[in-house]
């Protein structure tokens, strides 16, 4: 199951349980999600009109919070996203935020901003007592709920990758350092 199918399944479950969903993804992903939801007989327009699901364009939404084409304006992000969640909580007990902005930042090489964004999203989820799905095309979906700890999954994924690389390198060096028990046979070159 790919990330979009996994996310669509979660959206379907939350909508069926009368919970609100805020989906912040690119247009292509939004189209995939709505197409998959329609196979489950969800009337997307009806749930949008009820305010149960909100689609926000990840690129446009993110552009509101990038300063000087570099820094992430966490205060504005916090204010706007918290307001959006609070509006949904007026009508629904629980809100799930699905984030694809981190994926955009990672694809643009803005790793520090992506880590900062992930931390801010976790903080907002905790403050608003909501859940966040953070995904990108390179790592599995990351589920962040208010009651979970705040360790950055990007940082953890990078650290795990580095540790795996170091372990592999260490094993290779260890194998090279072992004395060989095979005899070398003389080699004569063909004439």
Automatic annotation (TrEMBL):
Q: Which InterPro entries match?
A: MEDS_domain, P-loop_NTPase
Sequence ranges assigned to domain MEDS in this UniProt record: 7-136
Pfam entry (one)? MEDS
The protein's name is MEDS: MEthanogen/methylotroph, DcmR Sensory domain
The organism encoding this protein is Nitrosomonas ureae
Q: What is the lineage of its organism?
A: Bacteria, Pseudomonadati, Pseudomonadota, Betaproteobacteria, Nitrosomonadales
